[in-house]
Design a protein that fits this description.
- The structure is a single chain.
- The protein is α/β, with parallel strands linked by helices and about 325 residues long.
- It has a single domain (about 15-325), classed as Alpha-Beta Barrel (TIM Barrel), CATH 3.20.20.70.
- Helices cover about 35% and strands about 15% of the residues.
- It is built from eleven helices and ten strands.
- α2 packs parallel to α3 and α3 (about 95-105) runs parallel beside α4 (about 120-130).
- It binds iron/sulfur cluster (2 copies).
- One iron/sulfur cluster binds next to loops.
C-alpha cells in the first residue's frame, strides 16, 4: 500500500489505468467494475441537507450481505472498496470486521467519514488497513460547518479528531493517507484559504476542494490561492470536475458508472451515487446476475447524461469513454 507524496490521487482519466475495462466497454458496452462504494448504514449523527442517503431508511446491512458482495466483487476483478454513505459508516456495529474482511479478500479499502465519532479501536483499524481516510469537513468554522452538516457545535471536535488520525498514523508505520474533503459553495468558498491553512497545520496529507453536486458557484480563484499553501507533504487539490465547469456535457450515455458499483444499505445497487433513486438488484439475486441483468443495462440505456446535474463524479471517465466508444473511428491510427 502506498501513501502518496507529490502525486495527486485526484487526477482525471485514472480510468486509463484499467485499459481492459475500457476495451470491454468499447467492444461489449459494459464491464465489471474496478471500484465500489458500500453503504453499511443509513443512520448518521449529522444531517447534511444535501446528503445522498438522506431519504434512505433501511436497517443496517447484515455482515453476510457485505461479505457476499465483497467475495463476488473481488472474484470479478474488483480492486477497491470505499466505505461511505448513505449514512456514517463508523456507526455500523461490525464496521471493523467488514473492513478487515475486505482487506483479506485482497481489496484496497478507503473510508469516508464526517469525522465526528472517535473510537480508538476503529481508528487503529482504519489506519492499519485503509489506503486513505478522508474526513468530509465542508466548513471553515462552527457556523459554516453547522450549515453544511445540519448539526451545531461539531466543527472543533471534528478538527480535533482529524488531528488524532494524523497522530495515530504518524505514530505507526502506516501508509494510510489522512485527507480532508471540502465541498465548495457560496457558504464555504469564503473559507477556502483559511481552512486550507488550518488543515496544513493539522498535518493532513491533503485537502480536496470539490463541488457540491449540481452547485455552480465558482470557487476556482480561491482554490488557486489556496494552492499557494501546498508543501512537499501537503497537497492542495481542486477537483478535476472544475475543468468541465464552463462546458456542457457532450456525452449522452453514462458509461462511467460501469467502472464503479454502489451497493446501498438496502442491498440494492444505485445507478450512481448521484442518482440514488435509480436502482437495480437486489444483491440477493446474485452479484454476477444482477450486474449483468437486463435491468442494469436498461438503466444505463435510459439515463440521458445530458440531463444530469453538472460536475458529477464520473465526468472525466464519461468524457473519455464516450469519445472512445461513440466518436472514434480508425482506432489503430492514434496520432
Ligand atoms: S455526514 Fe454524510 S452520511 Fe451523514 S448526513 Fe452528511 S452527507 Fe449524509
Ligand atoms: S452522468 Fe453522472 S450523474 Fe449522470 S448517471 Fe452518470 S454518474 Fe450519475
Amino acid at each position: 500500500m502506498e501513501r502518496f507524496d507529490q502525486n495527486n490521487p485526484f487526477v482525471p482519466y485514472k480510468a486509463l489505468g484499467h485499459l481492459d475495462r475500457i476495451v470491454d466497454i468499447r467492444d461489449k458496452g459494459w464491464c465489471w467494475p474496478v471500484c465500489a462504494d458500500i453503504w453499511l448504514t443509513d443512520r448518521c449523527n449529522h444531517a447534511c441537507p444535501e446528503c445522498a442517503g438522506f431519504r434512505e431508511v433501511s436497517p443496517d446491512m447484515d455482515p453476510h450481505t457485505a461479505h457476499k458482495f465483497i467475495d463476488g466483487f473481488a472474484e470479478t476483478g474488483g480492486k477497491s472498496l470505499t466505505f461511505t454513505g448513505g449514512g456514517e459508516p463508523l456507526l455500523h456495529g461490525q464496521f471493523v470486521e467488514i473492513l478487515r474482511y475486505a482487506r483479506a479478500a485482497g481489496l484496497d479499502v478507503s473510508v469516508l467519514t464526517n469525522g465526528d465519532l472517535w473510537d480508538e479501536r476503529i481508528a487503529r483499524n482504519i489506519i492499519e488497513h485503509a489506503t486513505y481516510i478522508r474526513v468530509s469537513l465542508d466548513g471553515y468554522n462552527e457556523e459554516s460547518h453547522a450549515k453544511m452538516h445540519g448539526v451545531k457545535g461539531r466543527f472543533h471536535r471534528v478538527m480535533t479528531n482529524i488531528l488524532k488520525y494524523v497522530e495515530l498514523r504518524n505514530d505507526t508505520d502506516s501508509r494510510c493517507a489522512v485527507g480532508v474533503g471540502y465541498l465548495c459553495c457560496a457558504d464555504t468558498i469564503p473559507g477556502i484559504v483559511r481552512i486550507t491553512q488550518e488543515c496544513r497545520s493539522l498535518g493532513v496529507d491533503y485537502i480536496h476542494h470539490r463541488p457540491l453536486y449540481g452547485n455552480t458557484d465558482d470557487p476556482r480563484c480561491a482554490i488557486e490561492a489556496a494552492k499557494g499553501l501546498a508543501t512537499d507533504g501537503f497537497l492542495v487539490a481542486g477537483s478535476s470536475k472544475y475543468a468541465h465547469f464552463d462546458g456542457r456535457r457532450h456525452h449522452h450515455r453514462c458509461y462511467g458508472q460501469w467502472l464503479g458499483a454502489v451497493l446501498k444499505t438496502s442491498g440494492r445497487f444505485a445507478f450512481c451515487c448521484c442518482l440514488g433513486g435509480t436502482e437495480f438488484g437486489p444483491l440477493s439475486e446474485g452479484w454476477q446476475d444482477v450486474w449483468t441483468s437486463d435491468r442494469h443495462h436498461s438503466a444505463v440505456d435510459n439515463v440521458n447524461a445530458m440531463y444530469c446535474k453538472p460536475l458529477c463524479r464520473w465526468q472525466a471517465a464519461n468524457d473519455l469513454l464516450w469519445r472512445v466508444k461513440e466518436e472514434a473511428c480508425h482506432p489503430n491510427f492514434i496520432a
